[in-house]
Every structure is written in C-alpha cells, then in structure tokens.
Amino acid sequence: QVQLVESGGGLVQAGGSLRLSCATSGRSFSRHAMGWFRQAPGKEREFVAAIRWSVGSTYYADSVKGRFTISRDNAKNTVYLQMNSLKPEDTAVYYCAAAQKYYSNSIYYTGAGQYDYWGQGTQVTVSS
C-alpha cells in the first residue's frame, strides 16, 4: 500500500506564504513525477505544479508561475510546494499525487488522469 500524506495547509492573509509537504510511505514504488493539484468549491480539480523525481525539472500552471515553487527531497521521499504572494483565488484543497509512468513531454503531467496515487488533501484558505 502506498500512502501520500499532505501537511502544511492553513489560513493565511493575502500576500502571505505557506509551505505544503507531501510525504510518501508504504511499499516502495517507482515514480517518474510528483504533482500538486487543487480543487476549489464548485470547481474541477486543476493542475498546479509537477516535478520529475529523478532530475528535478519542474512545470507550473500559468496561474502560479513565479509565486509557487515545487521541490523534492529524494532521501525523505517528500515533495514540497512553497507558496508565496498568496491570493484569495488560491483558496482550495491541495492534493499531491505520484505518477509511475514516464512521459518525455512534461505536459502530460498536468493531467490528473496520469497520476496513480493521491493524498487526502490539505485545505489552504487565503483571506482578503
């Protein structure tokens, strides 16, 4: 059984920062990428950021580019999402996910369907 556990969510004022963590545990598995997605009330789940596990290359949604940074610690099997300059529209439940399949084009890692394992989510609320 593979488990992904997110932490670090909370309530923050607009312009503030939060750092989300996603720790992986359970049986070992190969992963080619880890991603962060978010879902606001009444909206579909949307891609936020992804990172290739081996080389560390990153990919971001336009809405968070320049404000969010995804990173990973291979030794700790943990992926992070540093969120700066937060806006009220960033309010959502944030999910981390792991993809086992390799894609040469990172665009494929923007699709939720490409991920095999998901965390339970952590709430991020940004007040205006």
Structure description:
It is a single chain. With 128 residues, this protein is mostly beta strands. The strands form two sheets. Strands 2, 4, 5, 6, 9, 10 and 11 form a seven-stranded mixed sheet that branches. The protein starts with a strand and ends with a strand. The chain is built from no helices and eleven strands.
In DSSP terms (H or I, runs of 4 or more residues), the helix count works out at: 0
Distance between the termini: 40 Å
Unreliable sequence segments: none
Gross geometry: globular
The pLDDT mean sits at 95
Task: Evaluate the radius of gyration.
Answer: 14 Å
Number of strands: 11
Structural class: mainly beta
SSE order = EEEEEEEEEEE
Strand content is over 45%
Fraction of residues in H or I helices? under 10%
Q: Mind summarizing the main beta sheet?
A: 7 strands, mixed
Secondary-structure blueprint:
Blueprint: E1 2-7, E2 10-13, E3 18-26, E4 33-39, E5 46-52, E6 58-60, E7 68-73, E8 78-83, E9 92-99, E10 117-118, E11 122-127
Parallel strand pairs: 2-11
Antiparallel strand pairs: 1-3, 3-8, 4-5, 4-9, 5-6, 7-8, 9-10, 9-11
Please name the defining characteristics of this protein.
mainly beta, seven-stranded mixed beta sheet, four-stranded antiparallel beta sheet, 11 strands
Compose a concise summary of this entry.
By secondary structure, the chain is an all-beta fold.
